[in-house]
């Protein structure tokens, strides 16, 4: 059977059922004889015995069958139900992943030993660090070093055995009480040793199914699965840890399949067989129990024989656009082919219509831009390193300061003493320190670039049926999948570094859960990145392949008012500028220091005065640079910021040194409003705000200082309205009106 059961075409759910024929000949294959002990009924009984009265199976309406076919269906269901718990090693149904079989399923047994090792390792690390002080105390008390180390090692080993036993016992109990089940209408997760807990996840509410595997997990072929239901800030995603890779792939495909069936108004039975509009689509498990004879399984569960002509051999193939590659793709493909120790066979999860990757150039620039985002961490690391080195070279630093102060004349004035001390501080030793600092920054930057490149190794983004999938990571593999109907916005971000090369970051805004996606627990505010470094000119083609539903960007015609430039300079350069207020504080501090020195209320030596002068000079230089950048940012913002809207879509662009464009359907806008303060009312401008459900709790896209009349026109457009008013609002915006159906769709929500 292999993996072909996953390739049943989605068109089955959409085709109308054909008329019932006069006769039907069931398929009886050799595989069926081996795998299924249930005898097939005669061919003619399928249609001859069919009556008009419907039957039901687990609440699912079925067509009445002849007596032989009813007996076959009952026997097939009993065989499927009885054999799901334990299969013989030579049973062909073993080809079906455990996650697609009926009943409850346990996660992989690595939950016990790998999870236990992780917990024990963390505990032992803390114990080793804490025991260092005890060893030093014993040595200072006169105990020989060897004896102190031996005693500490013995106590540590005994403690490790006790702690390990407790941890592994707890992990085993947790594993025994952890299971999941795919019911006809919901996914259920069971957990708890003493206090039992069951979490219900209706299939219709599933937004994304993501996978993540660390280095050790990837070697073993296991991963963590997160099922995101997009319930906002009060909702937490359901996480399954330590699942085999093949079972995770099959589970992801099955969850989206069941969601699609229920959203189409269909139903599912206990085995996952789908019933939509008279069409019957047997589940992978039921097909396996029927010996691979999908047609007989369809007829047995109510399909018309003429419509039951969709066999597994007629499954659609994967047709996609070849993705660009880079040097790391070969290594990533090798790791994927290895699948890990427990990974199992690769599971086909649907047809791919579009796929894109990273070229060598894009991968390199993605590493550079990613490292730029870690600049603050690099500087913090340098400061921490400087503090550590200062402790080791305290005597050198004291000699450096004393040497600098040796040339200061005691008879000179305080400002002259400060200038002389300042010049002495920047001697040869200071330049050596600066050189080492620069080398350290460059080294950390290089490591950050390499880490980011490895993080994006094997990057692929694809459109698979109704989903967008993104996976990347050469060592730690991350997979994100999201339904297209859950996408709220398409965001194009052009940071300063990316704009220098004509590139941008492409992401989508989605409804996030309260559980954070990043490993350190920080919010993932930018949504799901679908391309980290793409040529700006390629964005329309990429969006057209991945999200054709968002490809029609409206023409942007509404710009900030002329007075908005002056207001932007004041807002960015003064009101919202942290550096400006630091400069104000530095000036006040300088005035207070001089007043104290002149009055004699303060007594300060030349070295401290030099440090104060240095700090003030740095503040002045920082203010001049920051104010100039803020003015440039305000001018660029005024020139490139714009919004547009038509009958169905809206887009907002906020420019500056960096530039962000957000595109979203009108029906995704939760509410819109116009906001003004007294100064804006005097300038006859307003802030346009459009709220979507993206992120945790929603995100507001806004454009400042739009002319009042344009803001009022937009507010009329966003208000729920009739078809006639929709066309009128579009005409008022200067765009050609769409047909009435499109305008009506745009007026919804």
UniProtKB/TrEMBL annotation:
Disordered, as annotated region: 1-52
Report if keyword Membrane is assigned. yes
Check the record and name the InterPro entries matching this protein. Answer: YdbS-like_PH
List residues of the YdbS-like PH domain: 175-254, 459-512, 647-717
> What are the alphabetically sorted keywords of the record?
Membrane, Transmembrane, Transmembrane helix
Report TM segments: 111-133, 145-170, 363-386, 433-454, 574-593, 608-632
Signal peptide start-end:
none
- Protein's UniProt keywords contain Methyltransferase: no
State the name under which the record lists this protein: YdbS-like PH domain-containing protein
């Amino acid at each position: 059977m292999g993996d072909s059961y996953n390739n049943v075409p989605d068109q089955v759910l959409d085709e109308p059922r054909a008329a019932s024929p006069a006769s039907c000949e069931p398929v009886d294959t050799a595989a069926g004889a081996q795998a299924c002990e249930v005898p097939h009924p005669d061919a003619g009984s399928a249609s001859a015995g069919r009556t008009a009265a419907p039957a039901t199976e687990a609440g699912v309406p079925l067509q009445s069958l002849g007596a032989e076919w009813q007996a076959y269906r009952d026997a097939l269901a009993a065989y499927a139900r009885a054999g799901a718990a334990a299969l013989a090693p030579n049973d062909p149904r073993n080809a079906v992943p455990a996650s697609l079989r009926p009943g409850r399923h346990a996660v992989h047994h690595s939950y016990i030993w790998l999870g236990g090792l992780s917990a024990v390792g963390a505990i032992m690390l803390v114990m080793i660090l804490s025991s260092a002080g005890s060893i030093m105390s014993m040595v200072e008390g006169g105990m020989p070093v060897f004896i102190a180390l031996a005693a500490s090692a013995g106590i540590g080993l005994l403690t490790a055995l006790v702690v390990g036993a407790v941890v592994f016992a707890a992990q085993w109990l947790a594993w025994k009480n952890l299971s999941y089940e795919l019911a006809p209408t919901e996914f259920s997760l069971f957990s708890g040793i003493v206090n039992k807990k069951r979490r219900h996840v209706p299939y219709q509410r599933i937004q994304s199914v993501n996978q993540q595997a660390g280095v050790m997990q990837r070697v073993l072929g296991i991963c963590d699965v997160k099922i995101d239901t997009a319930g906002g800030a009060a909702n937490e995603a359901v996480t399954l840890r330590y699942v085999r890779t093949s079972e995770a792939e099959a589970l992801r495909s099955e969850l989206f399949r069941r969601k699609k069936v229920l959203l189409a108004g269909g139903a599912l039975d206990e085995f996952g067989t789908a019933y939509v509009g008279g069409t019957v689509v047997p589940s992978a498990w039921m097909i396996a129990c029927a010996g691979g004879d999908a047609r007989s399984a369809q007829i047995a569960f109510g399909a018309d024989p003429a419509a039951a002509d969709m066999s597994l051999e007629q499954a659609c193939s994967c047709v996609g656009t070849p993705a660009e590659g880079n040097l790391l793709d070969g290594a990533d493909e090798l790791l994927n082919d290895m699948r890990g120790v427990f990974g199992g066979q690769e599971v086909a999860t649907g047809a791919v219509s579009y796929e894109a990757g990273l070229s060598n150039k894009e991968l390199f620039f993605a590493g550079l831009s990613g490292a730029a985002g870690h600049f603050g961490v690099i500087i913090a690391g340098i400061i921490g390193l400087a503090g550590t080195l200062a402790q080791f070279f305290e005597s050198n630093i004291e000699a450096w300061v004393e040497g600098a102060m040796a040339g200061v004349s005691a008879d000179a004035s305080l400002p002259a003493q400060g200038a002389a001390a300042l010049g002495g501080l920047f001697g040869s030793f200071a330049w050596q320190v600066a050189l080492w600092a620069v080398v350290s920054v460059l080294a950390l930057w290089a490591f950050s670039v390499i880490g980011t490149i490895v993080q994006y190794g094997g990057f692929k983004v694809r459109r698979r049926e109704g989903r967008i999938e993104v996976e990347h990571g050469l060592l730690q593999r991350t997979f994100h999948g999201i339904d297209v109907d859950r996408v709220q916005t398409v965001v194009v971000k052009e940071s300063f570094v990316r704009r220098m090369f004509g590139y941008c970051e492409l992401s989508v805004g989605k409804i996030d859960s309260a559980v954070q996606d990043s490993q350190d627990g920080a919010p993932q505010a930018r949504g799901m990145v679908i391309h980290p470094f793409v040529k700006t000119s390629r964005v329309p083609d990429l969006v057209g392949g991945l999200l054709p539903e968002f490809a029609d960007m409206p023409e942007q015609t509404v710009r900030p008012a002329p007075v908005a430039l002056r207001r932007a300079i004041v807002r960015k350069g003064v009101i919202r500028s942290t550096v400006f207020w630091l400069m104000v504080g530095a000036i006040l501090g300088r005035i207070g220091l001089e007043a104290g020195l002149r009055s004699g209320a303060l007594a300060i030596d030349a070295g401290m005065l030099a440090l104060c002068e240095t700090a003030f000079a740095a503040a002045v230089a920082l203010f001049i640079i920051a104010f100039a950048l803020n003015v440039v940012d305000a001018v660029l913002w005024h020139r490139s910021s714009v919004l547009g809207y038509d009958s169905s879509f809206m887009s907002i662009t906020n420019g500056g040194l960096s530039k962000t464009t957000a595109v979203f359907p009108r029906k995704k806008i939760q509410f819109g409003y116009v906001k003004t303060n007294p100064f804006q009312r005097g300038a006859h401008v307003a802030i346009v705000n459009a709220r979507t459900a993206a992120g945790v709790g929603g995100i507001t896209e806004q454009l400042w200082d739009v002319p009042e009349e344009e803001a009022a026109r937009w507010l009329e457009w966003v208000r729920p309205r009739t078809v006639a008013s929709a066309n009128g609002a579009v005409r008022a915006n200067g765009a050609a009106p769409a047909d009435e159906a499109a305008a009506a769709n745009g007026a919804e929500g």
